[in-house]
Amino acid sequence: MLERARSLDAADPQASFRHRFDVPEGVIYLDGNSLGCLPKATPARLEQVVRGEWGRDLIRSWNSADWIHLPQRVGAKIAPLIGAQPHEVIACDSVSVNLYKLISAALAMRPGRKTVLSEPGNFPTDVYMIEGLEKQGLAQRRLVAREELAGALDDNVALLMLTHAHYKTGQLFDMEALTRAAHEAGALVLWDLSHSGGALPVDLTACEADFAVGCGYKYLNGGPGAPAYAFVAQRHHEAIAQPLSGWMGHAKPFEFSDDYTPAAGVDRLLCGTPGILGLAALEVGVDLIAEIGVERLYAKSQKLSEFFRQCLSEADVELELVSPADPVQRGSQLSFRHGDAYAICQALIARGVIGDFRDPDILRFGFAPAYLRFEDMAEAVRHLAEVIETGEWQRSVFRERAAVT
Ligand SMILES: *Cc1c(COP(=O)(O)O)cnc(C)c1O
Fold first, then answer.
1. What's the whole-model pTM score?
2. CB of 126 closer than 6 A to ligand 1?
3. Which residues participate in the annotated binding site?
4. Domain end among 234, 263, 291
5. Which segments of 12-55 are extended strands (E)?
6. Quick check: CB of 123 below 6 Å from ligand 1?
7. How much distance in Å is there from the Cα of 216 to the middle of ligand 1?
8. What is the pLDDT of residue 163?
9. Do 241 and 270 have their domain in common?
10. In this structure, are 185 and 328 located in the same domain?
11. pLDDT tens per residue, range 169-211
């Protein structure tokens, strides 16, 4: 397989982009869907922002380096990756905080309706944020299995809120069909693009989505805890009111008025002072993903994951696939179920093959296509086969749970 893999790499027109990332020697990184790799240009850009813009120019940089518009500038660069217009996206806060803002805004736009509909097993923070609003008496959380969602859209539903590519299985929702069904029932729709933005083509405009959020530190390679982004369709720009009425979302923050007047459009989603270092790093990651192009990335990720499965079957490794077998129905990942997934994952990490474990029994491999090679697929499967065949994972060191899995 290794030879086949190398010839596929040699023929891959995108292979050179790997060199734009700092992929550590001896590591096969199958966790770019949790924390993307470091772009090589990021340290120099941060050095410039820290030493020059902050160290030397100090507070003048809010104007001279245009720090004040960095959330909009980065948002505008993310927009074409998700089928949005530049002024419909802003980079700020975490996904969780943006969910809070947008769920609240949606509820206020549907007076008389309180239900926020989602699926059980959605990413925890997504369902927790609904729960928080429920405790405030503002929302009613309803979780319904994905097959039954369309049928559950009754006239109590204010918002349908789903994650486009499921974080555990990679399974995709049909964004267009579900958005249409929700609209027909009078509900609004919020898509969480954390596992799809920057990894596969998303067209929020064509789907007529109302709201979206997404993550900066996964496929956009913005660095640990990078700012997230939020999208609001232009048709809702007048109507949205968000509850975190901080001064940076004010129409004129530097008038220091006693009364809050929201800024126009997505600018009102800002709350406090944006973290400039985080945004600067995110901008480098977004620029690089935009340069490669989401269509190309997605095409390669499908080839990588299909090649991974071929390698598994040739190595006679039998693992239960929990991701859709059809590549068009999944994001850039493959997940498998195994009773000892945690220990297997740890044994692989000890060999330099970094995937991750998702409670209780999922072994998850992310294929961030910007920097992975077919060779990595063949080698990862060789290691996986050896770990399972030799029983290496049974060593007690591989069973100790760390704080972050
Ligand atoms: C990664 C991820 C998040 C992360 O939320 P943060 O508040 O940025 O930590 C949220 N939702 C989904 C679906 C994710 O995959």
1. 0.97
2. yes
3. 96, 123-126, 163, 192, 195, 217, 247, 273
4. 291
5. 28-29
6. yes
7. 9
8. 98
9. yes
10. no
11. 999 999 999 999 999 999 999 999 999 999 999 999 999 999 9
